[in-house]
Write a structure and sequence with these properties.
This protein has 456 residues and is α/β, with parallel strands linked by helices. It has 16 helices and 17 strands. It has 2 domains: 293 residues, Mur-like, catalytic domain (UDP-N-acetylmuramoyl-L-alanine:D-glutamate ligase); 152 residues, Protein-Tyrosine Phosphatase, Chain A, CATH 3.90.190. The strands form 3 sheets. It has an 8-stranded mixed β-sheet with strand order 4-3-2-5-1-6-7-8, with helices on both faces. It has a 6-stranded mixed β-sheet with strand order 12-13-17-14-15-16.
């Protein structure tokens, strides 16, 4: 089976394709050869947006799971293993099943020319459709990979609910340079005669979505109009965030284990989706207790606080007990955060300003296609809370050069910026630094960094 994994890994550098003539024809062709499983899965909840779509997908999947439904969840990217992207009832696809479906796709690919070659994301999307169809899930929650109109997940022809999370500027080289262009692209996941739930957004975004829905006879729910949040409370000592939800039901004291301000919007959007499923007759009712339990879900790399007692550090013979393990002492706290665009960093800055954190060691890396200049400028607003900035490069070919990031940070953080050309050197510095210091260390800028940080 090694050749199957090699087949997948060969495409990993091409997660998506940036071409003017790109279309969904290749994946449609392969799916046709596979029996069109995308047309057979039922009760699809399709989620697009710039930020928050993975969180909303995870929350609604957990709400449905807590109510006894069999739920498929497709998200990206993965943190440690590719299996994480495709799960049913919170269990990632097994290596056996992954290999089984990859072999089917591989056998079809042998007869394809270069013009019909799939991307990495398209291959995994085919695996997901095959797996979810065979497992006959009650609900299938699909997070868009990039954009909407030409995303591989958008080959589904029927959805019960389309969800639009926060839209802002990102992937502008593909989706367009304006909020309008990006919104129009992402709104293409909205299917006729369905339902659409929209998270907190700019007025411009809401107007465009409203127009698209009107043309397609789609019913709408907006954050701030049809559902809302009140009484948001941050507890940094016990590390939770709490709010009251107002929709079809009033749910008081919704508690989250993630401190991000935007998470209350994501969580409330997930609850609104659950209420919409009742209106559509897809579920009978929701239990407030089961909703509250679902909201306690911990999501990786969303301001994820890791210490010596964390589950990941206690795994017997864990491969993660290496250099990064040596950073921990009774006073040291490490935080992993996957924020990777200006919109996300605005939330990051809000959180840090509300928090008691100071003398932060900020470890930063970013992919080449991301807007590092705007992101760093936003981060400069909390420079009074940052002791040092450590920019570094991970092994991915997509990673921005550390010298470029170093020069940009130096415009705002004079004399407090250091650069490292690999993770090994970064961790060696942190280990030596931590012997006599007890600063909070925050790794941010990319979802792709955490795996490499734990494996060095």
């Amino acid at each position: 089976m090694n050749y199957i994994i090699k087949f997948l890994n060969k495409f990993e550098k091409k997660e998506y394709v940036v071409k003017n003539n790109y279309s969904l024809e290749n994946i449609k062709y392969v799916l046709h050869k596979l029996g069109n499983p995308q047309d057979k899965i039922k009760n699809v909840i399709h989620i697009a947006g710039t930020n928050g779509k993975g969180s909303v997908a995870s929350y609604i999947a957990r709400i449905l799971l807590n109510h006894g439904y069999k739920v498929g969840l497709y998200t990206s990217p993965h943190i440690f293993n590719v299996n994480e992207r495709i799960s049913i009832n919170d269990e990632p696809i097994s290596n056996k099943d992954l290999n089984k479906y990859l072999e089917k796709i591989y056998n079809i690919s042998l007869n394809l020319g270069n013009t019909k070659r799939l991307t990495y994301f398209e291959i995994l999307t085919c695996v997901m459709f095959l797996y979810f169809n065979e497992q006959n899930n009650d609900f299938n929650v699909l997070e868009v990979g990039l954009g909407g109109k030409l995303d591989a997940t958008n080959v589904v022809r029927k959805t019960i609910i389309s969800v639009i999370t926060k839209i802002d500027l990102d992937h502008t080289e593909i989706l367009g340079n304006s909020i309008r262009e990006i919104t129009l692209d992402k709104s293409q996941i909205i299917k006729p005669n369905s339902f659409c739930v929209v998270s907190k957004n700019f007025n411009q975004v809401n107007k465009i979505i409203e127009s698209v829905c009107k043309k397609n006879s789609v019913k709408l729910k907006f954050f701030g109009k049809d559902f809302n949040i009140k009484n948001v409370e941050y507890n940094f000592e016990k590390k939770f965030l709490r709010f009251d939800y107002y929709g079809n039901k009033k749910i008081k004291g919704v508690k989250l284990n993630i401190m991000y301000p935007a998470q209350v919007e994501n969580a409330s959007t997930a609850i609104a989706i659950a209420e919409t499923l009742i209106e559509l007759g897809k579920i009978k009712k929701i239990s407030i207790k089961k909703v509250l339990t679902a909201m306690l879900l911990k999501l990786p790399s969303r301001f994820e606080i890791v210490n010596i007692s964390s589950k990941i550090m206690k795994v017997k013979n864990s491969k993660y007990k290496n250099k990064i393990y040596k950073l921990f002492n009774k006073k040291m706290e490490l935080i992993f955060d996957g924020t990777h665009n200006p919109s996300g960093f605005k939330n990051f800055v809000k959180l840090i300003n509300r928090s008691p954190y100071k003398n932060i060691i900020l470890c930063f890396t970013m992919m080449k296609e991301k807007d590092y200049k705007s992101s760093i400028k936003i981060l400069s607003k909390i420079k009074n809370k940052i002791n040092k900035v450590l920019v570094y490069k991970i092994g991915s070919y997509r990673c921005q050069n550390e010298k470029i990031l170093y020069n940009e940070f130096n415009k705002y953080f004079i004399k407090n910026v250091l650069k490292f050309n690999n993770i090994k050197n970064l961790l060696n510095f942190l280990i030596n630094f931590s012997k006599n210091n007890s600063h909070t260390v925050i790794f941010t800028g990319s979802l792709y960094a955490q795996k490499e940080l734990f494996e060095k």
